[in-house]
Amino acid sequence: MPGGRGAAAHEAARRRTFAVISHPDAGKSTLTEALALHAHAITRAGAVHGKAGRRPVASDWTEMEKERGISVTAAVLQFTHRGCVLNLLDTPGHADFSEDTYRVLAAVDCAVMLIDAAKGLEEQTRKLFDVCRHRGIPVITFVNKWDRPGREALQLLDEIEREFRLRPTPVVWPVGDAGNLRGLIDVRTPGRMLRYARTPGGAHEASEEAVSAERAAAEEGPVWDQAVEELELLRAAGATHDQEAFLAGRSTPVFFGAAISNIGVRLLLEAVVDLAPPPGPRELAGGRIRPVDAPFAGLVFKVQANMDPAHRDRIAFIRVCSGVFERGMTLTRAATGRPFATKYAHSLFGQHRSTVDIAYPGDVVGLVNAHTLRVGDTLYTGQAAAFPPMPTLAPEHFAVARPVDITRTKQFRRGIAQLDEEGVIQVLVSELRGEQAPVLAAVGPMQFEVVTARMTGEFSAPIRLEPLPYHLALATDAAGAEALTRSPIRGEALTRVRDKARLALFRGRWQADSFRREFPDARLDHLVAAHD
Ligand code: G4P
Question: Which atom of ligand 1 is nearest to the CA of 259?
Answer without folding.
Answer: 23
